[in-house]
Amino acid sequence: MPTQTFLEWKDRYSVGNDELDRDHQSIIAIINDLHNSIRDQSTHAQLKEILDRLFDYTQTHFAREERLMQEYGYPDLPKHRTVHSQLTQNTKELLAQSLHEESGTALKAMSFLKDWWIDHILIMDSRYKPYILKEPTTDQP
């Protein structure tokens, strides 16, 4: 089947940092890959590869984002870290379930990921935008 866009990047998702915006775009692209794999009834091995890629890239993104928030003196970094940790745990659980149960669970996981990422970018990440548009407040190596 032709590739479909389940989730589309919009300029309003921008957090004002090219590197983080590229990360968010890459995560959205992986979610779209996952959507297409579920739609095409890919094998569990194919789904697992995409889910592993999503999980790994998310961890890389969270580390980069948290480093920048620290560098720019974002005061709500501890709360943001907690939210990242919760998503990591929830994602591990959902992804494990989706690999062992019927496709309905995988579709629920897709919906969760889509909603979580868009809400996270538009609400949580937009809060640090004013900070990363300024000069860094700490000297990072």
Question: Could you describe the 3D structure shown?
Answer:
With 141 residues, the protein is mostly helical. The chain contains 4 helices and no strands.
Mind sketching the topology for me?
Layout: H1 18-39, H2 44-71, H3 77-100, H4 103-132
Tell me how many strands there are. 0
Radius of gyration from CA coordinates: 16 Å
CATH homologous superfamily descriptor: Hemerythrin-like
End-to-end C-alpha gap? 47 Å
Tally of separate helices: 4
pLDDT average, as an integer?
84
Class from secondary-structure proportions = mainly alpha
Annotated CATH architecture: Up-down Bundle
Question: Which sequence of SSEs, written as H and E, runs from N to C?
Answer: HHHH
What share of the residues does DSSP label as strand, in percent?
Answer: under 5%
- What would the CATH topology be? Four Helix Bundle (Hemerythrin (Met), subunit A)
- Would you identify the regions where 5 or more consecutive residues have pLDDT less than 50? none
Overall form: elongated
CATH top level? Mainly Alpha
Number of structurally distinct domains: 1
Question: Which percent range fits the helix content?
Answer: over 70%
Largest sheet: none
Annotation keywords:
single chain, 141 residues, mainly alpha, Four Helix Bundle (Hemerythrin (Met), subunit A), 4 helices
Summarize the structure.
This protein is mainly alpha-helical and 141 residues long. The chain has a single domain, classed as Four Helix Bundle (Hemerythrin (Met), subunit A). It contains four helices and no strands.
